Every structure is written in C-alpha cells, then in structure tokens.
Amino acid sequence: MFKNLVAISSLVLASGVAVAETQNMSVTVSADIPTSTFYVTTTSDWNAGEVQAMPWDATNGKLGALQRNLLAKSTIGPITGYLLSEPTISTADGANSIALDVQVNKKTLPVGATSAPELITAADAANERAYPLHIAPNGNTFNPGKYTGTVAMVFESVAP
Predict the structure, then answer these.
(1) DSSP bridge partners of 63
(2) What percent of the chain has pLDDT over 90?
(3) Count of domains observed in the chain
C-alpha cells in the first residue's frame, strides 16, 4: 500500500512539472460575395486591399500611372462611378502631395455623386467584363519622398 501511495504521489508531482505550452493564433478571414445582379471588383491578378505601387521612371524622373483592371457586371442598368474625396498621395508629414487623375473605362471619375458619369452602358454591363482602371499623377514635378494615399471610389447601378 505504501509503495502504491509513493508511486501515485510521484506521478502527480511529475505531471505538475510537465506543463503543456500553449500558443494562440488568430486568422482574419473575409469574404466578399457579390450579388449576381451588380458588382464591380478587382480581377484575380491584384487585390485592392493591398498597397498598389505606382512605378517610378528613374531615367526620365517621372511617376508612372497605375494600371489595373476591374471586373464589372450589372443586369440592373448602366454603371456610374465617382470619388468620395480628392485623389491624392502625400508624404507622411504632409509637406508634399501629388494630385491624381482616376479613370475607369477611359472616363474620368469626379469627386461627388452629383456629376457621376456613366462608365459602362447597360448593354455592355449585362455581361461580366474587365474594364481598365487608370490612376495617374496630375503634374510633372515630383519632390523626393515616400507617398501614400487612398483612392476611394463608389460605383452605382440604377435601373433606367
């Protein structure tokens, strides 16, 4: 009996020494599932949630345009678009900024919904298709620095 008690006590003490280590992990997961009647999204070769780098041409000292494609479809009607704010990129200290021109399907997006142009006709929008997104600097003078900014676009489709 005494030997059993000693053996059990030894196991209890030994198990207290062998403490399991724990690591917690969190994974952020999202899904953007568009309706079948209307959507404007990125093509599979880029992600709007990631920073998109505008190319710098060191030879000519010019900032190049960012060119991507958007997938769009609407069985509701034509697709219009506009910007929520002035499209600019600026340095962290705000000392320098570069105005941007934003085009979708070769049509310039204005700031505000009141003058939103028709970007894609109802007939063209009826079937999913890729349309060019073109974000270019407005100007030719660029001060050195690291520039960042957000281009906030809104797309709408309303029955004619």
Answers:
(1) 56
(2) 72
(3) 1
